[in-house]
Write a structure and sequence with these properties.
homodimer, Arc Repressor Mutant, subunit A, Alpha-Beta Plaits, four-stranded antiparallel beta sheet, 5 strands, 35% helix, elongated, DNA-binding
DNA sequence: CTACAAGATCAATATTAGCCACATTCCTCT
DNA sequence: AGAGGAATGTGGCTAATATTGATCTTGTAG
């Protein structure tokens, strides 16, 4: 039967491509111990299966003039369907919100906001976040620096 | 003199490449209103300046078998040089730590850990994090789901 | 032993990047 | 207004690479 789960070679492929998506199929093959053509086939299968969602450029936050990351945890007044949907819609719409997680515990959401400076954050807060209905509380924590920002998921072999 | 700062076209380029790095220079040019050759030149300049740090594949966390994100905030006993260095070294070494920020406020670091399930997180905690010297306290918050995970920085035109 | 899945190898084709040269446009400074 | 410089537009050429398809080999499970 045709293989369908992710094996060790696939994991190596994913690690390599998460580090550098510009490798040629030949270089890729060498890294994972395959020749170019089966290697290309596996990559295409991973793309088709949606394991690889796409290929993107990684931009330096500071050099792009956006050095500030702010973490914001948010509590909603109610967790009704309508509330959650409206919140999710706003999150998707606002580009300053780079990451958003639904959390366990006292706080409902954890966001990471990227801005060029603190005044920009203040504007974002005042004009967008605080105007959202259904938000009970907002708590901001500022990042002084990025110690690590990995593009590679921990694909441990088992 | 040769241009050196990022202008509106560069911003458009960066946005496009952060969405899809596989666009040909021609398609890219069409998006930003340039023909292929100056477009390619600008991209090369952005790469050389380090604004574009690289190109990577984006992998679906769940489909790759790593559905769990845990946020961990950490407080060190002291913030001496030596302590910070050791911590940074460990963070860089452990692939489960995907993101790490140095924070203001009561907590020193905020980490995002990616694992395949809760037992794996427990193992990570017991065998790695809690064994690090100089760590005063660890506080874990679990993510129930990813609402947004953007690869595009908010390049607002000004 | 057979069947099948996956890999290796090879060939043919087409797309694309990377260069380079040259003309043109746009902007700024004097 | 005029000069100079920076950046773009166009075209042409070459080399690298992806893509596809065919054929053969290998390892393995039934």
């Amino acid at each position: 039967m045709p293989r369908s789960e992710i094996d060790g070679i696939d994991r190596k492929l994913l690690v390599a491509l998460q580090q550098d998506a510009r490798l040629t199929t030949e270089q890729l093959g060498r890294r994972v111990g395959l020749s170019a053509s089966p290697c290309a086939r596996r990559v295409r299968l991973l793309e088709a299966a949606g394991v690889i969602k796409g290929y993107v450029a990684v931009v330096d936050q500071s050099k792009a003039g956006l050095p500030i990351s702010v973490f914001v945890s948010i509590k909603l007044e109610r967790q009704r369907e309508e509330e959650l949907d409206r919140f999710a819609e706003a999150v998707a719409r606002w580009p300053e919100i780079v990451d958003c997680y639904l959390m366990t515990g006292q706080r409902d959401y954890l966001l990471r906001i990227v801005v060029k400076d603190l005044p920009a954050y203040e504007t974002f807060l005042k004009q967008k976040l605080t105007r959202l209905e259904g938000v009970a509380s907002i708590e901001s924590s500022f990042a002084l620096g990025q110690v690590k920002h990995s593009t590679v998921l921990p694909m441990i072999e088992t």
